[in-house]
Amino acid sequence: EAQLVESGGGLAQAGGSLSITCAAPEFSSFTSDKYTIGWFKQVPGKLREGVLCIGANDDDRYYADFVKGRFAIVSDKSKNTVTLLMNKLKPEDTAVYYCVAEVAELTTAHNMCITRALGMNYWGQGTQVTVSS
Question: For site-directed labelling of 28, which of 46, 77, 103, 116 has its Cα 20 to 30 A away?
Fold first, then answer.
């Protein structure tokens, strides 16, 4: 059962932009100083991949090579949300994207992303992103 609620995503043309927002209605404070937060993509028949993860410290950031310079995470503390901003989209970005979170003391951003979120406790329901060429 998803404890995080995702919204957004959808269809875009190559070169366009989309965003996915991850809300945490059951969390009192869903911010990166208390939680390590990450975004992952899943393509049928392939392993889940870490896209972008952020940790409690400003230095604790992980960006997959294929999204550097294109994707970013923005937090809104007033709304208790984290948003994945996706720019310069490519057809190969097409996937289901998952928001994942874990208590910051239990994992770093680097660890969360390279282990493909193995064992992480809080998940969104998944959001489809489709990029046409």
Answer: 116
Closest CA to 95 of 38, 53, 51, 62: 51
What is the phi/psi pair of residue 22, to 5°?
A: -115, 120
| Rounded distance between C-alpha atoms, residue 132 and residue 89, angstroms | 9
pLDDT mean for each 10 residues of the chain (133 residues)? 89 98 86 86 96 88 94 89 96 97 93 93 96 96
pLDDT at position 21, please? 97
Nearest to 120 by CA among 132, 133, 109: 109
> Which residue do the tokens 């239990």 mark?
106
Contact 26, 101 (CB under 8 A): no
First and final C-alpha spacing in the chain: 34
The β-bridge partners of 53 are 38, 62
